[in-house]
Amino acid sequence: MARAETNYVCQSCGGAQPKWAGRCDACGEWNTLIEEAPSAPLGTQATAGKRRGRAARLNLVDLGSESPEPARLQSGISELDRVCGGGLVPGSAILVGGDPGIGKSTLLLQMMAQIARSEARAIYVSGEEAIDQVRRRARRLGLADAPVSLASETSLNDILDGLKAEKPDIVVIDSIQTVWSDQLAAAPGTVAQVRACAQELVRFAKKSNCTVILVGHVTKDGQIAGPRVVEHMVDAVLYFEGERSHQFRILRAVKNRFGPTDEIGVFEMGDKGLAEVTNPSSLFLDGRGGDTPGAAVFAGMEGTRPVLSEIQALVAPAAFGTARRAVVGWDSGRLAMVLAVLEARCGVDIAGRDIFLNVAGGLKITEPAADLAVAAAIVSSALDVALPADGVVYGEISLSGDVRPVGRSDSRLKEAAKLGFTRAIAPQAAADETAPIRVDGVATALELVQTLRAMAGE
Description:
This protein is of the alpha/beta class. Helix content is 28%, strand content 24%. The chain is globular, with a radius of gyration of 26 Å.
């Protein structure tokens, strides 16, 4: 009897190879190849006969034709609605990822309770916890009276049969890695199972006009586990960020077909679950000291919302001869660029000193406008001189040392004025007489260094 053909599938990228190897040729990861028997994709067996019996027909419409805007389903949590682009779109599929214990299940249970109280049909399917565990969490959060329907099931066929019979408005699958189909020989959580089950659930969402929310595990690198094709199939991908030791949680949209992809929602973890933070700037600046060398307030933008945060830097003598560079909340490659500009263009001697950089509050900054604030914090610590306590800093630094203008300067300055700041160090283009606060425009990073040296009396 001939042996059945098998493939070795990478659990990191989904690439298939005919034989086992220690390293995946597609993504370069080690020890990720798992033997799986090839199976036909779900849904192909039942529909093959129908395709042969009738001719295929493609319904075409005009590009200029109009269709009514779908009414969004309000979650009752304004920060979540902001990240989703104004609410949940019926018939959409959303993937939510985050570290274990960061609050994914808590937030989704709070959301489902709010939606169920608005007379919408909400079903919560848990594949990792028993029903009693979900009930205990609901009682702890004060949500036991919400009419949310619970189920503990991992079989894809049973889940789809139940959803088709109940016809819900929204359903949560917690998590997609626990769901399995008996049409595949692979184990639950493998690439084949995750891809096939996600595809069937997304198809159900489109056909039934039901909003489906999938919870995904994350790898040690912070990426959602499983093949990247799952992120391509869904309409929105939301990441939960933050350290479990901090009370702040940030929900960030990295993909959204129905709204902006750079919005964030800020939450605070407490005894009663996750509470919304309507003014994140005041939260990130809470407990900030006064005249402290090495601290700079950065006026940044997260989507359409201006957010002020504190960037802290410490420049210290190298203990073992080799300088260290430690970064939390910012790109280490960008830090190396800023340090090179300060060394080569501004004459700041920091090459042989340890440099530690931290964004307070657990916020992760990706905006290039933070270059000037990082440079100000580093030079402030190196010269042991404090920046003005009533000032904010923002601007992008080029390799030539020039400070380039950034967008939305008016929103940044208005947010700073609202929180009591009276001055700003910003690109020269932002120095406008109509600005709500005083703007000290700098054209190059050298001007910033000279200003701080004058303050230090050098």
